[in-house]
Amino acid sequence: MTQATKTYRVGDAAVTRIDELRLAAFKFDALYPDAEPDALERHRDRLEAGSFDPATGTFIQSIHSWLVKTPHHTILIDTATGNDKNRPDIPPLHRLNEPFLARLAAAGVTPEQVDYVLLTHVHADHVGWNTRLVDNRWIPTFPNATYVFSGIEQAYGESLAAGTAPAGAARPDPALGPAARKPADRVYDDSVRPVIEAGLAQLISVNGEEVLDGISFIPTPGHSIDHASIRLVSRGEQALFAGDVMHHPLQVYEPSLNSCFCEFPEAALRSRAAVLEDAAERGATVFTTHFAQSSVGRIDRRGDRFAWHFL
After folding, report:
1. 0.90 exceeded by the pTM?
2. 3-state class of 215 per DSSP?
């Protein structure tokens, strides 16, 4: 089930959420396994009903893409999970059949009209609609788009798929055969490699430089090896598409919380602190990937702490 969304203006750009899934899948100690138990209790009264179920202690989250229309381009930021993807290790994402493309059409955009796909990182729930299954083959969903993402993320994903990742990376056990392949390997093969083979990928260095007018990839590594947040500046207004720097509003109040999905924990802590400081200082509208409700808000500084306000 999804909720109705609205379009937000950032200068000349219009931003609309394209829903895929709404989930109530994680309790506190599952999503934040290394956290102090008191971290949730300190902030229960700040967690609105749309993002936390007090009866079950379950976080409510969303998976979606952001459609950005500028005067010159039609852009998707991240592409959710995708249909038909083989994800047995992640049951809520396994072999989905969601009307994502119909929701995109309802927002006035067909796959052929997308000019750019911008990816914050190469995880299963951010790259899935890069491709769709046609005649038992994975083909690019957005055939006229340029898919822009980190060259380091691409190389790391390819090394996982090839079984040549550096020590400590999650690699398949060759003795167990193809059925034992890790989710990251399957994600690369069905959602990233076909885009590269089609000649649609633009691999970049994540260094804060503009990749399109007013749009830049900001280094926020930690959740993944070269995770990026995406900044949009238009007519003096700013937006930050934060990717997976945070998974839930609780992390605004408790930035020391790393989710169970953060691959490089120390870097993730530094990136989260930097995003909170930057968004509060700039007054940016923050577009999140997994916050429920509107998924859009602003961050205020309150002394040495931060607060989240849904818009």
Report:
1. yes
2. strand
